[in-house]
Input
Amino acid sequence: MRRRQFIAGLGSAAVWPVVARAQQQPERMRQIGVLMNLSESDPEGRLRVVSFQQGLILPQDPFTGAHRQLIIELAARHRLPAVYAFPHFAAAGGLLSYGVNVVDQYGQAATYFDRILRGTKPADLPVQQPTKLELVINLKTAKALGLTIPETLLATADEVIE
Output
């Protein structure tokens, strides 16, 4: 019987935070802390904070990649223009992406493997930068957010999703 009471207690304890959140005032101002490796007075740090406060910018990492659809849906629901790192985010409904062309990166990697297999020491190979960046704009999402994309930006885009 104690085991059942314990489990029931855990279940009701898990409900308390949900109930408490549901009773909060909707007008309450939320605060978000940002932990960075720059001081508050550093000019670069200030630029990052201002950017954070404004155009949601998502760097690519395993978390954002795995949850991209949810992130895109939440950005749309909250009417946040968002910039993503890879084209598949824009293709899935994100506003725009600007970043490396992953297919091109794989091609560069293949040339490195070829050189290594032919006897070049990896330490002798130069570090390579991406050679191709892509801008993909999703006009359907822009319209849903009430944004007008300048013609000059559309003209420079590698892909425009309508």
User: Anything to note?
Assistant: The beta strands are 83-84, 96-100, 133-138, 159-161. The chain has a mean pLDDT of 80. The chain is about 50% helix and 10% strand.
